[in-house]
Design brief:
Distance between the termini of chain A: 41 Å
Number of domains of chain A: 2
Oligomer: homodimer
Order of helices and strands of chain A: HHEEHEHEEEEHHHHEHEHEHEEH
Radius of gyration of chain A: 21 Å
Structural class of chain A: alpha/beta
Number of strands of chain A: 12
Low-confidence stretches of chain A: none
CATH class of the largest domain in chain A: Alpha Beta
Largest sheet of chain A: 7 strands, mixed
Helix content of chain A: 25-40%
Largest interface: A-B, 75 and 75 residues
Chain lengths: 345, 345
């Protein structure tokens, strides 16, 4: 067997044996995994496909694994999970794929789990034309004093709620632009090394904001029932606000003076557009009452108010700008809620 | 929009909206699914890839969906689940895929859930070079009187346990042979229409044996602690027996006079080989003490004793024949434990 055999050289059983080394002992020895008892379980599936969600040009194997796990864990955070149970991995790859790529991807998955909790629960593997990771993550919700699950729902928003972002937006899109060398040479030369490094890191190793859920619990005003609307910003900040607005039957108003830009990239011509619809920042966008929002912002560095929910739906316009005159509205960037990607394009 | 648009014509959001119609109302409106409280949860992931696990030549879209769900639910049965919670689907397909194929696959998935319980919990979709369904199924175990989870584990077998098969083996492989027209014309002409129809059905619409778990509970001798070893025969009967033997530290002895053949196909030259290693019959292969095994066989039509577990491991030989002389052993077919498929070949 060569030092870095292909999957065809390894064969399915040897491959599974090597993958089992990433899981707790005995975890791969049955048909499926039993989950330890505890609070309400949340389940989420994300599929990442080579050439669509990652590529050798921008994402090495470890980063592909990390991003796959992080995207799933971000959805668990967006549902309000306080604990990651773990994940299963459906791996598809051509037979000529070197083991080292698979090993790197699983190292990335495991590193993300070791940082944020949870274990590799199991999975399946198959040959196929294209590398692909289908990950299902399982997490747990906390129960409140009355035994109700503390879930974050897109539909839980009410008019008057404050819209909050857990962090800045646009950095991941800048990282992608740098990795793809799509910025002109002039602009690229003006990006400070610190920003460049941070933006790439943000794109290749996004951080699922499970810590925000803990901060939400800790900042909850006394005697207040659990009611938090929210989602993650994987498809972009504007799309996240639109999803909350649509499911809550409200209109989301964003404040142009409170765009959650990273100060180091605010001078870029694309900054506002990437902030609104760059996607894959994996922050949480939340709608909650003012007192709770203020307490959360006070507790969580980087968390800021970005707008509010108001009455009024409008089938088309779910996000608009807070602006008192038409002239002001016209100077603002168009709000693209379509999501950052066309997967079937 | 044409009557049967391609996924590229539909776009991701319209596609998700159409897929949501297969799930309970509101199920797709959040980042992930919350599972209702209850007994211990079991999770299993299976990936089915076009050209590897199904193909237009042998499996239409509905059958591809059904088989994907059934393969997953069979793993839940093999773990001892008494209830199917539901499943998530990671769908990958090229942009030119017609909506009708996706609709057919989801119809097949849903038909399997409607027959065996559970709902569509959520999922993800992406473009890609090849159609693929990555399904994660969730089920529940019953608790015994002492609050212990009644799981079926491959490792729970003991020397002296009776090996039981929940039904005949080889029919699915015959169905595949008929669909692929790999039998010679002479042999094919001798297959009765009833057998042909049943074998094809067995291949395209396998039945996950969740009913066996109910029968196991109902036939459990009084006061007997829960101890059942087992797995499903998705990779073949011999591979299932080998898996139990390996994880239980025993040798599995199969009785050549008790091969679980379907009587209607026993005359085929390939019958014994397909029975042992054809694969994808999705029956349960169990190891349990004699009194319980007898009660189960008495209760469950088609269930039969096929051998036993004995002391002795042997690194290579995990399944052997019950045979008193070398001459007898030599007339028996070779036991192929390699699994029916080479996914990376």
């Amino acid at each position: 067997m060569p030092e870095d055999p292909s999957l065809a050289q390894l064969g399915e059983w040897d491959l599974i044996e090597r993958l089992a080394a990433f899981a707790p002992a005995g975890q791969f020895s049955d048909d499926a995994a039993v989950i330890a008892p505890g609070g309400p379980v949340v389940v989420n599936t994300d599929v990442l496909v080579d050439g669509v969600h990652f590529s050798d040009a921008t994402t090495d194997a470890v980063a592909a694994g990390w991003r796959t796990a992080a995207a799933n864990l971000s959805d668990l955070a967006a549902m309000g999970c306080t604990e990651v149970i773990g994940l299963t991995v459906g791996l598809v790859a051509p037979g000529h794929t070197p083991w080292s790529w698979v090993e790197g991807a699983y190292r990335g998955l495991l590193a993300c789990l070791q940082t944020h909790g949870g274990t590799l629960l199991g999975g399946d593997c198959s040959g196929g034309h294209q590398r692909m990771l289908a990950v299902t993550a399982l997490g747990r919700l906390a129960l409140d004093g009355r035994g109700e699950a503390c879930a974050i729902l897109r539909s839980a928003g009410l008019p008057g709620d404050v819209l909050v972002s857990s962090g800045p937006h646009g950095l991941s899109r800048l990282g992608l632009a740098l990795l793809q060398q799509e910025l002109g040479a002039d602009l690229q030369a003006r990006i400070p090394a610190e920003l460049s490094q941070r933006a790439r890191q943000c794109h290749t190793h996004p951080v699922p904001r499970l810590d925000v859920v803990g901060a939400l619990h800790a900042s909850r005003p006394l005697q207040r029932p659990w009611r938090v609307a929210g989602t993650d910003s994987s498809d972009g900040l504007a799309a996240a606000a639109a999803a909350i607005a649509r499911e809550s039957g409200c209109l989301a108003l964003l404040d142009p003076d409170r765009l959650p830009l990273d100060p180091a990239m605010a001078w870029l011509p694309q900054a506002a557009q990437w902030c609104l619809s760059g996607g894959e920042d994996f922050e949480l966008v939340l709608a909650l009452e003012k007192e709770w929002a203020d307490a959360l912002i006070g507790r969580l560095p980087g968390c800021r108010r970005i707008g509010q929910l108001t009455e009024g739906t409008g089938d088309e316009l779910l996000v608009d700008w807070v602006a008192s005159t038409a002239a002001e509205t016209n100077r603002l960037p168009a709000l693209d809620m379509g999501g950052g990607y066309r997967h079937f394009g």
